[in-house]
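BUG: 3D viewer hangs when loading the predicted structure for this chain

Environment: internal workstation, default settings.
Expected: structure renders.
Actual: progress bar stalls at 90%.

Input used:
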Amino acid sequence: MLEGGKTILRMGRFELRMRHLLVIGVLSLAFTTAFIMRSYPSKYGFYLNEFDPYFDYRATKYIVDHGLNAYFNWHDTMSWYPEGRNVPATSQSGLHIVSAFLYKIFGAGTSLLDFTILLPVVLGSLTTIVVFALVRTLGGTTAGMFSALLFAFSPAIIQRGNLGWFKSEPLGLFFGLLAVYLMLSALKHKELKYSILKAIAGGFVLGLANASWGGVQYFSIPISIFFIALPFFRKDTTIPIYVAIAFTVITILTAGAFPRPGISFVVGLAGLALMGGTIFLIMAHFVKKLSETRKAIRNTLFLLIAFFALGVGFIAVGAYHHSSFRYLNAVNPFLSTQNQLVASVAEHFTPTLVDYFTNYSILLMFAGLGAWIAFKHRNDMSVFALILGLTGIYVSATFARLLVFASIGIIVLAGLGLYEITRTYLARESSSPSAASSSFVATSKSKKVKKKNVEGSKVLPVKSRWMIIAYVVLIIGMLSIPMVYPPNSNWLSSADIPPSIANGGTGYRLQTNDWIDTLNWIAKDTPKNSVIAAWWDYGYWITTLGNKTSLADNATINQTRIATIAKMFIDQKENGIKIAQDLKADYILVYVVGQRFSGVNGTAFYTLGSGGDESKKQWFMRIGGFDETNYLQADGFTATPRFWNTTLLGQIIPFTPQAYATFQGGQLTNLQPDYRPGTVALYVKHIKFPVGSNPDNQPLSLVYSSPSFQSNDPGLVFGVLVYKVNHNYVPKITSNPYHEVFVNVTQQPSQQQLKPLQSFSPSSSHPIRSSLPSSGQGTPITNNATAAGAITKSTANTTTNATIHRNTTALK
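Structure tokens produced before the viewer hung:
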């Protein structure tokens, strides 16, 4: 559609045409738009976003400061105390190595922290160019330009690659899509030597991508299926054989060279899928070559059936490296888990149709058209586009976090669909009179003449300018609808996401310094070798910003430890103190979020439940093996007196319930002393342990509380409290504090198994929040990719809702 065009500049064999300027202009617009959209969180401060980037920054800094050899021998003793952690074997080494390498080249004059904060934005913007090249290979230049622009605005992708998101996804997507482009380009090349070179480059990039992000294993699915489909859609498979072999071998060698994924990739489902697809392609080539022409497809189909049966048997007997539940569930959505730690991950919840409409809106229509066009053409490139779209939607139907792959597939197909609409609308008609008249003659001869005339005839001028302008306005208008509508859940507002450290990991668009101040205090005012006990969500912050040792963090590599910490919080106070002492914890950190309201006569009351530990307590109970009905009211959120009076968590949360009421129009009604369905608990501030560093004969003393907790002003409270553990105190335990740890420890999750799903709520464990009356401070964030489909548990006439917040990574 962009063929030809007026020549602007000619230098020897080089010609610059108008269509080249158009492509450059569109790609510049896509890059710039992507950069701006991903930089939106800068309004809240220049921070790393979420939790995992703090570890990834720390690991990258270790390489910059000490070198690669020290990194590959690094056993981190500041995490998972006292056992520590083998960093290269349990983390995404590719991300750390590539980032350190890029910093050495491009980081002059900037700090490593600033470089890593900005790097995801640059990578996401550059990926728009890669998407253009990929879709251009599949469906032409116009389709590539459409897809690049759509990628720049995609909410699901922006939320996993915005400012400060120094995690695996931005680099993994960049490398993964680049590898797919190189592989497809190699298949289209007519010279074998260049095809092999591109295949080698693509395999190296894909192997590096797998070492940077475990989710890149997804690309093995469409690529292996594509290799299997090639013999049915391409007559000559000579070049594809060489490409598939070079691509697969280099991918496996590169990925296997890193400690992670290492050999597990080679003998795991991803590596075996690539090898299986390549082997089938080779066998099918010789089957077709040795078969009669009319029987070639039939024999190849028989081979596919036999190959499929062999593969099923191979998997049935377990002759492969078993992946974690997350990977298996992505392939088989009918699997379920009894592991409460896995179940607590919000990203493991299934997205609804509302999520798809919120994320993709009008793109679903264009993607459907693109899928129909791809199915209609049935050449190798269109088949791959169709495979990419279908597999992306399939895997995303299991985990909400995998909507990033659905986004890629839908963007590719939508680009093809938009191109087809544009091409059809702006198509030029043949100017040949004979062609025009012969089109009405229903003879085979006239059809041949018509085809010849259409393919090689002169063309008439394009449709009138006003028709073209009307079409452009219509397309822009349709694509603009999801950017601004609905008002609080659109593509533009989805980019307005505060960094987790800035809004306390809650769902509000605001900036608070509570966590920053707390971590600064921990870094400066606690002894050097102090050990901090806290829920695993905050482990990376404590270790990196607080520069202190943590017991558990977002890597979740020891689920038994996490269950033990859960028991520490939920068991009887004396048992919890005993567990803290046994874990050699010097301090216990607890995080409480609520709202303060001023009452009459200078009194004040609080409502709790906006994303702190008070909202995650139900998961503490489940992971620790407790019967939550003993500690929670019928709404599944409001705590019972037993929780407040007996558990350690209830004792270190510095609030006590005083009454229960309903809110109507911002006013308190139906005030009563006991809980009733539909009421919200009202609390008063109540610190239950001594304040200061001298605990006397008490097991704990409150040594720090963050500024908003100390403030008496109405509004949101982000209370981070640190208690000092008295190791001289002898707990009066009445039962075994280590009974019944209900965690399946047979699964050893890799680094950052549990990751944030949506940027709107950076809390790792998904909290249950109560519906709180507005304090007028901050704007609740409800416009993220999955907010529309967040799971809400409402009891009849109850103001308490259970909203899933994002957690840590499904495929890391």
